[in-house]
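Quick review question:
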């Protein structure tokens, strides 16, 4: 394949089966669970925007903090790929590796967009 590039596919396996992690104390109330999942989606979108800002400003401290939060919410939604890449970014930020930081932040942006789209599609199709 000389001279030809292809984009890597990003597929996220979504495990919304453990809704209790997203909505502790909500019991089996489907409306409360749906609201908790929607709030988690908003948190992911906000976190991704904040990571982009941190990347633009080369702000390791902000990126480290937000990436940790993002990884936690992603885990709660069963977005293991997103959680792993967010954890990788937190590590890059902690060690102050500028090249790694920008590369992983860019990957997190791509994976995050794909993961958000997948989870929203899943929620809409189940809702």
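Suggested answer, residue by residue:
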């Amino acid at each position: 394949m000389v001279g030809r590039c292809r984009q890597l596919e990003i597929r996220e396996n979504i495990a919304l089966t453990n809704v209790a992690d997203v909505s502790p104390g909500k019991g089996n109330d489907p409306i409360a669970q749906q609201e908790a999942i929607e709030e988690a989606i908003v948190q992911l979108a906000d976190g991704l925007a904040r990571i982009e800002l941190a990347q633009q400003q080369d702000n390791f401290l902000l990126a480290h903090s937000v990436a940790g939060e993002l990884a936690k919410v992603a885990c709660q939604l069963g977005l293991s790929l997103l959680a792993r890449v967010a954890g990788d970014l937190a590590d890059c930020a902690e060690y102050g590796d500028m090249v790694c930081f920008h590369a992983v932040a860019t990957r997190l942006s791509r994976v995050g967009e794909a993961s958000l789209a997948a989870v929203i599609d899943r929620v809409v199709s189940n809702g």
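Why it works: The helical segments are 19-22, 30-57, 60-77, 80-95, 98-126. The two ends are 43 Å apart (CA to CA).
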